[in-house]
Design goal:
Blueprint (H helix, E strand, L loop, with lengths): L1 E10 L7 H18 L7 E6 L2 E10 L5 E9 H4 L8 H10 L10 E3 L4 E9 L4 H14 L20 E8 L2 E2 L3 E2 L2 E2 L3 E3 L8 E3 L6 H7 L6 H18 L3 E3 L2 H10 L4 E6 L9 H12 L2 E4 L5 E9 L6 H26 L4 H4 L7 E3 L3 E2 H19 L3 H10 L7 H5 L6 H10 L3 H9 L14 H20 L13 H14 L6 H10 L10 H22 L4 H8 L6 H14 L5 H16 L18 H22 L3 H8 L3 H10 L7 H19 L12
Antiparallel strand pairs: 1-3, 1-7, 2-3, 4-6, 5-6, 7-8, 9-10, 11-12, 13-15, 14-16, 15-16, 17-18
Helix pairs in contact: 1-4, 6-7, 8-9, 11-12, 11-16, 12-15, 12-16, 14-15, 15-16, 16-17, 16-18, 16-19, 17-19, 18-19, 20-21, 21-24, 22-26, 23-24, 23-25, 23-26
């Protein structure tokens, strides 16, 4: 037998930014707990609105499956004496399992090693309805809530006060208590459109009943409706709505019965940078902005009301009154900021601590500017421009606009730099220093921006590692993981030929040595290892096997571009028909050579000692390929180089089939080992392909 199950947790308004996460986690926790009890069930649907979290489980078993328990006792030889009389050990076993002594003789079984006493008992299944209260309570306790609250005189804790609980199994109310409240069948509709309680008839009809009470409980359905409605409203107004996914989720979490409405603001505000207006509309009012066909901001916005008003114009006018002072503030900030140059604003950075042991933000700009100028020789940037960009890089952080809208850092720096008459590339660099901001984001395009972005991140990395505060576990307050990935992306995607070890030394040279907890060399190694380890995730995302990266990492290189080219080459090589045999051969060679303590590196092969045709053929092929591969290696055409080396397969196979490496004659043996050493070195010019062999 099975029935549908519904649980709804009715609350005060839930945090909009975490509503979707809470809903998904609640569903997952319910599913996990039902699965642990080995209950069968069908589809599981989650619902979430500002005042509720709900889950509907279809076709849930009404009973848990019965279980057989097996308790093993002492061996037969210990349980019975020579006369077959139960010993004290057998008596204790009987008492523990509540069975008569007379039955013990029939309870002897073989456990695979020896005969032992064994008690088997069947436990009947439990009523699912009786377990649902604990299941729901456990799921609520496990939700990812950073800070729980209490309300009234209750001891229960949740993200927001809980006011009602609906729990139905089939059409019957589950007799239980959750969050100190008895479960029932009464839910609540929209605050204004349907203020009276709603009696839920069945789990299957839950969503439809709420919809009749002006609540779209399905988060995905509500989000789709808002997206379509906002696009339609923008089109009707003659523009195109820009819908940010995070803002869309937040607006969806704020509304139970969403109605998109179009409002306007004065065109004079368009003199303010569009990014500032958009940030104000998004962060303060949760409005969607609209662009015209040329991509310019239009003086209109789209708000989503949580009510189907009989007078929508009144709602629109109210929103227009609210947005006007917000945009006025932005205009005031913009005008005020432009009265002081970024160069003068920079002086204010002296009083803002970057990190106690690393000095102020002003000190950081000094280090970054100097480092950027030095790195420009490698990145191809103009050194003077790179230095200037470094000096001004953090000046907009003390502006009124960024103080109000911190997401505009860099953006306002670019606007203010242009207003101050700075070089356009310096202005662009102030924005580009923060790129990429997240996975999949764009990267800097100007040489000055590229240089500043690298210099800023390297300074932070060596500084934080230098004072002994590297990331640990999930704690990464200075976003060093993101900084590392950003540097690697910029270097690789712009084909910048830079040695990270050298660059880190340059960054370390800018720091006050007295602040470092370890030697500069040690810190360099730490940071380099940390940064290059970030490569692993990049290639995993691109479905490149981990052993491919490991084969290159084994070479302990420090040039990200060079590493990247090698990884791509080894990945291509690994798909050739010759790869498996050559990787295995290199593994064999590596094992042989690792045991030789008296073989000097780079020993020359004596052609006169090559007696066997197979070793002569291998030596000849190696000599030929050494010549053809060298220019490919110099050009970093590792893919072509490995394709050339794939030609070794037949010669290598023949060598191991026909030649005894460990010959009795010492000179012959050492000569053959030198030949294998030459073979290994040829591949090690690119990677250690022996690591491509799967571990057994």
């Amino acid at each position: 037998m099975s029935s549908d199950f519904l649980v709804e947790i009715g609350t005060e308004e839930l945090p909009p930014k975490s509503l979707l996460n809470l809903s998904e986690a609640f569903r997952e926790e319910i599913v996990n707990r039902l699965s642990e009890l080995k209950l069968n069930f069908g589809t599981v649907s989650s619902f979430a609105s500002p005042r509720r979290l709900a889950v509907v489980v279809r076709a849930l078993d009404s009973m848990t499956p019965g279980q057989e328990t097996i308790n093993w006792g002492p061996p037969k030889s210990v349980a019975f004496d020579q006369a077959g009389i139960p010993t004290r050990a057998a008596q204790a076993f009987a008492e523990k399992n509540n069975c008569p002594l007379a039955a013990l003789a029939d309870m002897v079984e073989h456990d695979g090693k020896q005969e032992k006493l064994c008690h088997r008992a069947s436990q009947p299944g439990q009523s699912t309805a009786a377990l649902l209260g604990d299941i729901v309570s456990g799921a609520l306790t496990a939700l990812p809530i950073p800070k729980r609250m209490r309300w009234g005189t209750r001891r229960e804790e949740f993200v927001r006060p809980v006011h009602w609980i609906v729990m139905l199994f089939g059409n019957e109310i589950v007799e239980t208590e959750v969050m100190g409240l008895p479960a029932g069948n009464r839910s609540r509709g929209h605050r204004f459109h349907a203020p009276n309680d709603i009696v839920i008839d069945s789990p299957a009809g839950y969503g439809q009943q709420l919809k009749q009470a002006y609540v779209l409980a399905d988060f995905a359905e509500r989000r789709h409706l808002i997206r379509e409605g906002v696009h339609a409203a923008a089109k009707q107004a003659g523009g195109h709505a820009v819908i940010d996914d995070d803002l869309l989720n937040e607006v969806t979490a704020l509304n139970e019965w969403p109605v998109p409405l179009v409002g306007q603001f004065e065109a004079r505000f368009l003199d303010v940078p569009a990014e500032a207006l958009i940030s104000s509309m998004k962060s303060h009012q949760k409005y969607f902005h609209v662009l015209d066909d040329s991509g310019k901001l239009m003086p209109i916005f789209i708000t989503v009301a949580n009510i189907e008003s009989t007078d929508p114009e009144q709602v629109i006018r109210g929103n227009e009154r609210v947005i006007r002072p917000r945009l006025s503030d932005a205009a005031f900030f913009y005008e005020t900021d432009r009265q002081t140059t970024l160069a003068k604003q920079r002086e204010l950075l002296r009083s803002i601590v970057f990190q106690a042991k690393l000095g102020s933000l002003f000190d950081k700009t000094e280090r970054v500017a100097s480092l950027a100028r030095t790195l420009s020789e490698t990145t191809g940037a103009d050194g003077a421009l790179a230095f200037r960009a470094g000096e001004l890089s953090k000046s907009d952080l003390v502006s009124e606009m960024v103080g109000e809208f911190d997401d505009l850092q860099g953006t306002m720096g670019r606007y203010y730099a242009m207003h101050d008459g700075e070089d356009p590339e310096v202005a662009d660099a102030l924005f580009e220093q923060y790129l990429p901001r997240f996975a999949g984001d764009i990267i800097p395009t100007t040489r000055t921006g590229i240089t500043l972005a690298i210099a800023d991140r390297l300074d932070t990395l060596v500084g934080i590692f230098g004072i002994g505060q590297p990331p640990s576990g999930s704690k990464d307050p200075f976003a060093l993981r993101r900084a590392s990935l950003g540097v690697l992306r910029i270097i690789v995607e712009h084909n910048i030929d830079i040695d990270l070890k050298v660059a880190l030394d340059l960054a370390l040279a800018q720091l006050d040595a007295s602040a470092l907890v370890e030697s500069a060399d040690h810190i360099n190694k730490q940071v380099l290892t940390y940064m290059l380890d970030r490569f692993k995730g990049r290639y995993e995302d691109e479905h490149i096997p981990s052993e491919v990266f490991q084969s290159v990492a084994a070479r302990q290189l420090s040039n990200p571009l060079d590493i990247h080219l090698r990884v791509l080459a080894v990945h291509a090589f690994n798909q050739l028909p010759e790869a498996e045999a050559l990787a295995a051969a290199n593994k064999r060679v590596s094992n042989i050579l690792s045991k030789q303590t008296d073989l000097p590196d780079g020993r020359e092969v004596n052609q006169d000692l090559l007696a066997e045709p197979a070793e002569q053929a291998l030596a000849k092929t190696l000599t030929a390929l050494t010549g053809s591969v060298r220019p490919l290696l110099e050009a970093r055409d590792y893919t072509s180089a490995l394709k050339e080396l794939a030609k070794l397969r037949d010669s290598v196979d023949q060598f191991f089939d026909e030649v005894m490496v460990m010959a009795e004659q010492s000179e012959v043996r050492m000569n053959r080992l030198a030949l294998l050493q030459k073979l290994q070195a040829l591949f090690l010019n690119i990677a250690d392909i022996s690591l491509l062999v799967p571990a057994k």
